[in-house]
């Protein structure tokens, strides 16, 4: 564990039907773990399963555990990920946020850092609008949004996903593997969430003792 970072728990909350958003979640987790954080990967119930014919097969594993409202309270930072769905986050993820009004009233996420990530199948198919729309509930919850600064070389170099608004992947032909630059952007975002959470936690702890 990095000596400079406080003990940080990063909740990576994502929805993924075909595995691309999940690949980004993994890359963010790698960056965060390397920065010394504990990572909790969690997903949400699929609210569209019954209505849409679906041939996708996702392996069931521990990583398919659904998020609990306690997870929101207990985390120090949050990364939120969704496929791009008509230029917006998936309704399953949005539906989850509509169950968080108690946490909103309690300020469970207030003053914690957050970041967003997405995967889309076409280059100009709405990654940025999806990322910005995902920031909205997080702002309502009082979270502190972090992106990926241009100081990260991969943000300049990428020809697919990854940009200042968050990590992303271009999954043309349902390709789930991240490009080198997408991987670097996602890892950088994971690291940045951890260092930001650590700084904030240090300040908040100092505040408590004064
Ligand atoms: C209902 C629906 C809407 C979609 N809308 C878009 C879209 O607006 N733009 C786009 O580029 N891709 C769109 N896609 C494709 C997904 O964003 C893309 O396949 C994504 O990589 C899936 O992520 P996943 O592998 O995590 O499920 C859509 C897919 C579905 C099923």
UniProtKB/TrEMBL annotation:
<feature type="domain" description="Flavodoxin-like">
    <location>
        <begin position="10"/>
        <end position="193"/>
    </location>
</feature>
<dbReference type="Pfam" id="PF03358">
    <property type="entry name" value="FMN_red"/>
</dbReference>
<dbReference type="GO" id="GO:0003955">
    <property type="term" value="F:NAD(P)H dehydrogenase (quinone) activity"/>
</dbReference>
<keyword id="KW-0285">Flavoprotein</keyword>
<dbReference type="GO" id="GO:0016020">
    <property type="term" value="C:membrane"/>
</dbReference>
<dbReference type="InterPro" id="IPR005025">
    <property type="entry name" value="FMN_Rdtase-like_dom"/>
</dbReference>
<dbReference type="InterPro" id="IPR029039">
    <property type="entry name" value="Flavoprotein-like_sf"/>
</dbReference>
<dbReference type="GO" id="GO:0009055">
    <property type="term" value="F:electron transfer activity"/>
</dbReference>
<dbReference type="InterPro" id="IPR008254">
    <property type="entry name" value="Flavodoxin/NO_synth"/>
</dbReference>
<dbReference type="GO" id="GO:0010181">
    <property type="term" value="F:FMN binding"/>
</dbReference>
<protein>
    <submittedName>
        <fullName>NAD(P)H dehydrogenase (Quinone)</fullName>
    </submittedName>
</protein>
<dbReference type="InterPro" id="IPR010089">
    <property type="entry name" value="Flavoprotein_WrbA-like"/>
</dbReference>
<comment type="similarity">
    <text>Belongs to the WrbA family.</text>
</comment>
<dbReference type="InterPro" id="IPR001226">
    <property type="entry name" value="Flavodoxin_CS"/>
</dbReference>
<feature type="region of interest" description="Disordered">
    <location>
        <begin position="159"/>
        <end position="181"/>
    </location>
</feature>
<keyword id="KW-0288">FMN</keyword>
């Amino acid at each position: 564990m990095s000596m400079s970072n406080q003990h940080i728990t990063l909740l990576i909350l994502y929805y993924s039907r075909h595995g691309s958003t999940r690949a980004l979640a993994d890359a963010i987790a790698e960056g965060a773990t390397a920065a010394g954080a504990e990572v909790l990967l969690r997903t949400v119930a699929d609210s569209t399963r019954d209505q849409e014919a679906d041939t996708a097969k996702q392996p069931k594993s521990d990583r398919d555990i659904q998020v609990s409202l306690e997870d929101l309270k207990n985390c120090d930072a949050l990364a939120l990920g969704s496929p791009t769905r008509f230029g917006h986050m998936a309704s399953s993820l949005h539906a989850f946020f509509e169950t968080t009004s108690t946490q909103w009233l309690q300020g469970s996420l207030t003053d914690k850092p957050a970041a967003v990530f997405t995967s889309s199948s076409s280059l100009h198919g709405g990654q940025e609008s999806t990322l910005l729309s995902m920031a909205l509930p997080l702002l309502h919850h009082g979270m502190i949004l972090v992106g990926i600064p241009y100081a990260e070389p991969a943000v300049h170099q990428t020809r697919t996903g990854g940009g200042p608004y968050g990590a992303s992947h271009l999954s043309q032909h349902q390709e789930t593997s991240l490009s080198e630059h997408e991987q670097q952007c996602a890892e950088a975002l994971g690291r940045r969430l951890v260092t930001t959470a650590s700084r904030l936690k240090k300040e908040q702890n100092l505040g408590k003792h004064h």
